[in-house]
Design goal:
212 residues; mainly beta; 4-stranded antiparallel sheet
């Protein structure tokens, strides 16, 4: 079972935690931005990551995050932490306004398998973050469409991370998944993505990349 120390470590420094452990979101959550309580649970299956020693592969711990809310199936005593939820609705876009101070220091959003995320850091330490599940031609829209919608919304200064960007980082593009996390530092919000790929031998942790 995941420990409170592990949950605290992830919530305070997700970049470092995600370099050695696989973390993903699962289950329901609010449609709009909200402060929620998140439970960290052990995840099933095998995870693998490369080490700095000649690229050798070793097992990686796997964790799943779920909202602790009425009706949720969360084991008693599961470790928890507070977080900002970005909001998400299938087929739509949702935007979170992240303050420079006050509230949780970590932001979560659903796992990416075809969606795009958009983020912008502001000089005053605040930030905006959007999760786009915009559909076009029977699937999620391409990068050009997502970027055009983002530019119309943000008016410049935004970073777009779309399916073409993260699928290019795997060996089999359709099997790439990404956990995106925002973390508030003394200098403002940062956004990080953990890129993983589903393989027959288990999930392979490809890299942890700063998005903005």
């Amino acid at each position: 079972m995941a420990t409170q120390a592990q949950a605290n470590s992830f919530a305070s420094d997700p970049r470092s935690f995600m370099r050695t452990a696989i973390v993903r979101w699962a289950g329901g959550a609010p449609q709009d931005q909200a402060n929620i309580t998140v439970a960290m649970l052990d995840d099933a299956g095998t995870g693998r990551r490369r080490t700095s020693v000649l690229g050798r592969k070793v097992d990686a711990e796997k964790f799943v995050l779920r909202q602790q809310a009425p009706g949720a199936v969360i084991p008693p005593g599961a470790p928890t932490f507070p977080a900002v939820w970005s909001g998400y609705v299938g087929g739509q876009a949702r935007t979170a306004n992240l303050p420079a101070a006050g509230g949780p220091d970590i932001m979560l959003t659903p796992e990416l398998t075809g969606c795009a995320v958009i983020c912008r850091r502001n000089a005053d330490g605040s930030a905006q973050f959007s999760h786009y599940n915009i559909i076009e031609g029977g699937g999620t829209a391409n990068r050009a469409t997502m970027a055009a919608i983002a530019n119309a919304q943000y008016g410049g200064g935004e970073t777009v991370f779309a399916k073409e960007d993260y699928r290019a980082l795997g060996l089999h593009s359709e099997a790439v998944r990404v956990t995106v996390v925002g973390i508030r530092r003394a200098t403002g919000w940062e956004f990080w993505g953990q890129i993983r790929e589903d393989k027959a031998s288990g999930q392979q942790l490809r890299e942890v990349r700063r998005l903005a």
